[in-house]
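thought: user wants a sequence for this fold. calling inverse folding tool.
action: design(structure=
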C-alpha cells in the first residue's frame, strides 16, 4: 500500500511492526521478520530517512515511530513535490523529442487538411485536447455551420479552459453569430472585436494550431494547415497577442459602478445602466454599422437614433466618440 511513497514490501512490514512497539532494535526486528541483522538495521534507517521513525543512540540503538499523521503526510507531500518537478520537465523533454523529429522530417511541422468535413473534425479534436487555453481569430466565410465556435468549446469552458477569441466586426452583423457570441461570453469566453482579423485561427495550449491555407479573400476556405509545436506556432501565438491587445471587448460583463463622486461634475445623477443600453454601447464601441445594430437589437431606425441620442445626452457628451470614452470611464463598457 505504501509503494507509491517509496516503501518496498519489507520496509512497509517493518513500519507496521514499529507502529505497534514503543521502541524497537534492529535485532528485535530481525527476529520478527526473519531478516539478517544488517538488513534489519538498513530497513530501520530507511524509515528514519523517510521521516517515519526516530533514531536513539545506545547499546543497542533503538528506533521509535513518528506519528503517521505527521510522518506519512510529510512523505506524501515530499513525493508530490518530486512529481511536480518531474511534470515540469515533461514539456522540455517533449520539445527535445519534437525538435529531433522535425530535423529528421520537416514535413511533420505542418500537415495539410483537405475538405470542410475533415477540417471541422480536426478542429473539434484540437479543441477537445485543450488543457489550459484556447486562442482564436474568427471571421466569415465559414466552413461549418458553427463557424469557429464548436460544441467542444462549451465543454472546454465547463472544465475551466481559458478561451480568448478576437472576431472581425462583420461577425456581429450576422444576428445568429452575434447571439452565439453572446452565449459563449455568458459561458466564460473572453471576446473582443477588430475591424478585421489577419486570418482564421485556433491555437491550443500555445503549441498546436489550425489555420486556413487559402487567402482571406478567396471565399470558403476548405484547405487548412495543422501546425505542430514549433517556432511557427510560437509566431502564431505572438500574432494573436498583438491583435488581442488592440481589440475592443464585446458583450463583456462589467462590474456595477461604485458610488458616485459628488465632487465630480461628470458623474450622472443615476449611474445605473440597463442591459439594453449596455448592449447598445458595446455594439457602437465595436464599430458596427447603425443598420446592423438596430437589426440585432430589434429596433426601428427611429427608436435606435432616439436611444443613441439619449445615451449621448445622459453621458454629457457631444459625439459618439466622446460618449464611448465617457461610458468606459464610468464602467459601462
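)
observation: tool returned 333 residues.
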Amino acid at each position: 500500500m505504501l509503494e507509491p511513497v517509496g516503501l518496498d514490501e519489507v520496509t512497509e512490514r517493518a513500519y507496521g511492526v514499529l507502529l505497534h512497539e514503543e521502541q524497537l532494535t534492529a535485532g528485535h526486528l530481525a527476529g520478527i521478520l526473519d531478516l539478517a541483522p544488517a538488513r534489519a538495521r538498513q530497513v530501520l534507517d530507511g524509515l528514519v530517512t523517510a521521516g517515519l521513525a526516530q533514531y536513539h543512540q545506545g547499546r543497542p540503538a533503538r528506533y521509535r515511530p513518528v506519528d503517521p499523521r505527521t510522518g506519512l503526510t510529510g512523505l506524501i507531500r515530499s513525493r508530490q513535490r518530486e512529481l511536480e518537478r518531474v511534470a515540469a520537465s515533461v514539456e522540455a523533454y517533449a520539445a527535445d523529442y519534437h525538435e529531433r523529429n522535425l530535423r529528421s522530417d520537416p514535413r511533420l511541422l505542418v500537415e495539410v487538411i483537405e475538405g470542410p468535413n475533415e477540417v471541422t473534425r480536426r478542429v473539434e479534436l484540437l479543441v477537445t485536447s485543450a488543457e489550459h487555453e484556447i486562442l482564436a481569430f474568427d471571421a466569415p466565410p465559414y466552413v461549418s455551420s458553427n463557424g469557429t465556435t464548436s460544441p467542444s468549446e462549451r465543454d472546454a469552458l465547463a472544465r475551466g479552459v481559458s478561451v480568448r477569441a478576437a472576431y472581425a466586426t462583420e461577425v456581429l452583423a450576422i444576428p445568429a453569430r452575434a447571439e452565439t457570441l453572446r452565449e459563449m461570453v455568458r459561458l466564460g469566453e473572453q471576446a473582443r472585436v477588430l475591424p478585421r482579423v489577419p486570418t482564421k485561427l485556433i491555437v491550443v495550449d500555445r503549441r498546436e494550431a489550425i489555420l486556413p491555407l487559402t487567402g482571406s479573400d478567396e471565399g470558403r476556405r476548405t484547405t487548412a494547415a495543422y501546425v505542430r509545436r514549433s517556432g511557427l506556432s510560437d509566431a502564431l501565438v505572438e500574432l494573436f497577442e498583438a491583435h488581442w491587445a488592440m481589440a475592443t471587448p464585446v458583450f463583456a460583463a462589467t462590474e456595477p459602478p461604485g458610488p458616485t463622486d459628488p465632487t465630480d461634475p461628470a458623474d450622472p445623477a443615476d449611474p445605473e445602466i440597463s442591459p439594453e443600453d449596455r448592449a447598445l454601447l458595446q455594439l457602437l464601441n465595436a464599430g458596427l454599422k447603425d443598420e446592423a445594430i438596430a437589426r440585432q437589437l430589434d429596433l426601428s431606425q427611429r427608436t435606435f437614433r432616439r436611444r443613441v441620442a439619449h445615451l449621448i445626452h445622459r453621458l454629457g457628451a457631444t459625439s459618439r466618440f466622446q460618449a464611448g470614452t465617457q461610458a468606459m470611464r464610468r464602467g459601462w463598457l
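thought: summarizing for user.
answer: Here is the designed sequence. The radius of gyration is 31 Å.
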